[in-house]
Write a structure and sequence with these properties.
The chain has about 270 residues and is of the alpha+beta class. It is built from 7 helices and 8 strands; from the N terminus they run ααααββββαββαββα. It has 3 domains: about 100 residues, Helix Hairpins (Orthogonal Bundle), CATH 1.10.287.1260; about 55 residues, SH3 type barrels; about 80 residues, 2-Layer Sandwich (Alpha-Beta Plaits), CATH 3.30.70.100. The longest helix has about 50 residues. It is rod-shaped.
Amino acid sequence: MYLFSFQTEWSKLQVKLVDFGLNLLIAIAILIIGFKVVSLIGQALHKVLEKQKLDESLRKFLQSVLVSMLKILVVVTALAELGLEMTSFVALLGAAGLAVGMAFSGSLQNFAGGVMLLVFKPFKLGDFVTMQGETGTVKEIQIFQTVLTTVDNKTIFLPNGQIINGNITNFSHQETRRVDFTIGIGYGDKYETAVEALKEFISKDDRILSTPEPFIGLVNLNDSSVDIALRVWTKTEDYWPVYFNINKMVYENFDDKGLNIPFPQMDVHVHNVR
């Protein structure tokens, strides 16, 4: 009787071992085939994102996230095939993800901002921008922050979450820019003489575009000066050279043309009271 009972238990054990062995082989097959499929999906995604001309860092990040999620799914499927209870594991994983998300809410906001910057591209490397009250040249666009270099060579790190939710002024986005001047002449100076002088200065600077046409007009009658508005268009990279050059020509040549550059002045009348 004991022998019969031992043989029965041994037979049951053999069946369980065979079932476990088959499940183990299936789980291993799931891992091998699943990882291979995930690898192929990652390669296909890389080609698709490359055709979309997305930023390289964003492409790598999206590919990494998708591949990681698919690999976790493959591992969970393989463990389930071995008979492990995955409901509690998935619930625990979800709770852990929620806790991490709450702990790093600020970082996640910056991360989301970085993704949006890389997708919508309000600026690119080398652009001269103003954002969050800071002005400089964009040196790096990272997932969590953007790095600016100011004109006096300071490095500024701006969180992407704040950037994407604020105003961005991109001075380099357009191919051309308008250069605005307000040039004062003295009362008594001839307006037409000033206009002809400014037209002459414009004609001598090849960087000033003829289209749109330059504009010259009398804009203000101030206490100490008659202000003339000069507006010219130039290529974006020539903005500051044109600005400095026109100011230089006005300062050096207005006197020769009989024009005065006014400065604030006050008339004082003294009455002799007895």
